[in-house]
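REQUEST FORM: STRUCTURE PREDICTION
Request ID: SP-0412
Submitted by: Lab K.M.
Chain count: 1
Length (residues): 108
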Amino acid sequence: MDGRYPLHRAWYGFACRILSRDKTIDRTGVFGLAALLRKAQVQHADGFEIFVVFDSEDGSQARAGQDSDHKAQWPAPEHGLIQSLALVKNALDHTGIRQIVSERAIAP
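STATUS: Completed
RESULT:
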């Protein structure tokens, strides 16, 4: 499963933010990705192991260098969304869901 698309979808898809109890950490991305991952597993991969694939930090930049229209219409990501990526990877580690970091950008 592509990890960045559902994270982006979860981050912008909720009507309100899901915050930590002390209201210092935005957990919307982690909660939303976990919910989408669980739904995908139940509906499409029941009984199979799921891997979450992330493109490397340089992968998207390399693709943009090859295709100037790549994500050109996308606004710059919010700081909280970028922070959520680390939280998501940590949550995946704790749940035993394996991650793969691709050196090549994942096709949209």
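NOTES: Helices lie at 4-13, 28-44, 59-66, 79-95.
Reviewed by: T.R.
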